[in-house]
Amino acid sequence: MNELAAKIESALLLSGRPVSFTKLASVFEVKAVEVESAVSALMEARNREDSGIHVVVANKAVELATNPAFAEALAAMSKQEVQSELTRPQLETLTIVAYRGPITRPEIEYIRGVNCSVILRNLLMRGLIIEKEDATRLQNMYSLSTEMLRHLGLHDVSELPDFSSLHQNARIQQMLDALTEESDV
Amino acid sequence: MIFAVDQEHFSGPLGLLLELLQQKELEITKVSLEKITEDYLGYLEANDVPPEELADFLVVATRLIYLKSRELMPYLKTAEEEAEVQSLEDQLRLYRLFLDAAGKIEEQFAGSHVMFAAQKPRVVQDEAPAFVASEAVTPTVLHEAFGWVLKRLEPFFALREASMERVKSIEERLDEMRQAIASRASMSFKDVVRGAKSKPEVVVSFLALLELIRRQIVRASQADEHDILIERL
After folding, report:
1. Which helix (H) or strand (E) holds B229?
2. pLDDT confidence band for A185 (50 / 70 / 90)
3. CA dist list (Å): B167 to A105, A108, B55, B160
4. B179-218: buried (b, 16+ CB within 10 Å) or exposed (e) per residue?
5. CB spacing of A151 vs B114 below 8 angstroms
6. Which one of B114, B149, B166 would you mutate to disrupt binding with A, by most A Cβ within 10 Å of its Cβ?
7. Which residues of B touch A98 (CB under 8 A)?
8. Out of A92, A150, A154, whose CB is closest to B117?
9. In terms of CA atoms, which chain A residue is nearest residue B55?
10. How would you classify the pairing of strands A61-66 and A129-134?
């Protein structure tokens, strides 16, 4: 682990919440790409069975968390309420956001064939997803929150089961692109 | 006592289609979709679909009825319509992919792999008040912020209204047809759609006609090759 990675680790301990790559870059006066590679090094060093501290990355922000293997033992100590159940439509919507995020609402609605505004609002309020405005598409894009990733015990969305087959599926991309063209006309 | 009202009970029209296909052990094909059209419409009749989702359910209903109608009038097929059929099948397949993935996420969600984050230190009671507004917070700023919040809600309400309008159009059509048929003993489908401005409107009328038949208000028969005779019962 290089010095920048160690510095980042200290900063994360101090912060106790997700810190964006850009924030870290400005704090340590380095380029964003350097932060990205230092975070990868930190993840490699920490995300192991024999490490008590793990590192979670979502939406270009990084956070320290406990080792998922100790979840049961730590649950008693943590005040963080384990999320209650999800409804079927919430689960479906969350899955689409997880595999395809950042994704727009029309795209989610195309996949589910039904209006999702209420569900998205509920997921946002529970902090399971986040919403960001995309400057080029002028639309809100939804992605999984760091909190949700931690809840699933994942360090990064790429650890989702069959992630690449759904995330990079050419057929899905083609259909969603067709949808974008339609709405542009 | 708190009543939890679950507004999100339905998994949506595509979920319903997949379930119906599964019940009959059918693959996702055009022929299968035609076979379950009746079941789909029957389900809508028998269950109270939440009003804000009804439009989406009806859109799928019209697509199914459209599919069926094309079988009756094969000479009306165009390339554009072929693509439409393809897309309902594709959409279903795509939806099923994510449905399968959702199963795995559910296991993961229920499983005990939670990674806890640091807990924020609690503010000590004796310290300064928990909330101090910065000087930048003025009534004008708050006013602007609230305006922004309202603006963000606009699309949500606009969508609800749009969806209600779509539902209304089918219901209105239904009423119009019912009144028209009440004033005379019989009429033809051509009369009904004479004023139609678009293809969806014709489809909506056809859907309304099916609904009237289902409620046993009218009987329909083939008038000639190009028209349907509608008679009051």
Report:
1. strand B227-232
2. very low
3. 21, 22, 5, 11
4. eebeeeeebebeebeeeeeeeeebbbbbbbbbbbeeeebb
5. yes
6. B114
7. 105
8. A150
9. A114
10. unpaired
Of B8, B151, B209, the residue nearest A117 (C-alpha) = B8
Strands (E), chain A: 19-20, 53-58, 61-66, 103-104, 129-134, 139-144
Which of chain A's residues have a Cβ under 8 Å away from the Cβ of B12?
89, 92, 112-114
Nearest CA distance, A8 vs chain B (angstrom): 16
Structural tokens at position B69: 């109608």
Nearest residue to B64 (alpha-carbon basis) of B136, B16, B114: B16
pTM: 0.69
Cβ neighbours, 10 Å, residue A100? 21
Give the pLDDT band of residue A169 (cuts 50, 70, 90).
Answer: confident
Enumerate the residues of chain B whose CB falls inside 8 A of the CB of residue A123: none
ipTM exceeding 0.90?
no
How does pLDDT run across A1-27, given as a tens digit for each residue?
Answer: 899 999 999 999 998 889 999 999 999
- B148 to chain A, any CB pair closer than 8 A? The answer is no
More confident position, B4 or A26: A26
Provide mean pLDDT across the span B122-141: 67
The closest CB to that of A112, out of B14, B52, B120, belongs to B14
- pLDDT (tens digit, 9 = 90+) per residue, B27-52? 888 778 888 888 888 888 888 777 77
